[in-house]
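Cross-check.
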Amino acid sequence: MAYLFVLILLFNVLHNLNAQSSFTLRKVLQSAKENNLLLKAEFLNVDIAKQDIVTAGLRPNPILNNQFLQLVQKSAFGNGTVWSDSRNDQVWWQLTKSLQIAGLRKNKIELANKNVALKQEQYEDFQHILLTYTANKWIEISTVQKKMSLITKALANIDSLAEVNNYRYQKQVITETELFRTDLLVKRYEIQLHSIEQEHSNLGNELKLLTGITDSIAIDETDDLEINVSTALDSLIEKAFQNRNDYQALVAAQKVSESNIKLQKSLAFPKPEVGIIYNPQNSVPYLGFYATLPLPVFDRNQGEIQKAKIEKEQFDARIFATQKSIETEVLNAKELYETSKANVQDFQKIIKQSDKVLINVKYAYTRGGTTIIDFLEAQRSWIETELEYYSVLQRYRQSQIQLINALGLINNL
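Predicted model, tokenized:
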């Protein structure tokens, strides 16, 4: 009966895996680029910044000013003059416009354009972070999926032995304790399998949220993520400088600060206002011109200019610090990748040996050539070896992502 249960359970697991859509890492990352809700919201920052270009290009509106004075005492033109006579009032019409001098409008537009470039790099950096997180989540699911298959295989293996031991117990070949130990191991594997299935489901839900995928997710590891690390370290670091969005965002921010210095210097110049005046006084029309020029005696925008210069220095310092950080990241990621790859290759030999040991011990036990202690020890060692291999394989996959991340290439996968 227990054997039948395991067969049904194994069938359900395999059926569920087949019913799921298989996703390679590239396919998952592409789906995240297209469907992630936070990424879509972040992209709107670029569109918002583009509107600042429109605002920067607008010219100041003309200003219309009107003043009206009415004589409130006896008219100077005699008692026959009515109160509303145009000779009893004065009207002032003034049309002026402020001028943008010292390249003010040009520098506003330049700053707005540089800010759009900054927002684009910040969006790419946000995407970079999101894709790195998504890739690691994909790797976690891959590992859990392997563990689920392993426990399912172990359960089928031990349950077939339980059926044999049940028959052997009936024939009084083995003791009741030996039968119970086999049955207990079956129950332990069943509990582990249910726990791993739940973990797989939870991770799948998280990955679906990140990618916008609605189907159940199964992992397809056919992607080739091999990286040529034989390239000189200096070349890899230079490639990282070119592709790392966090670094390019700092460079873009530095350019924004340079444009801001120009703008603040333009704002230090007085803003003249010129125009024309039409002024009928007591029915006598006058026409004149208007001009005003603030005198830069006290306020020459000194504080904002100095602040802009300090911000430029701050970004210079951040860029230098980030360069050193990237150099270290690339070096560490390259060495970790090479070590992890070698560990996977070495462990594959151990896996083959572990499989062979388990098969031989199980064969010997079923024929009375060894004790159940030896078999349970071989079974435990086999599972531990497989799980350790999955951990090594996971670290190798993660080291791939870490190196791709350090080189700034994950957005291109």
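The chain has one domain: 2-72+83-412. The beta strands are 21-23, 63-70, 89-98, 217-219, 273-278, 287-292. Passed to J.P. for a second look.
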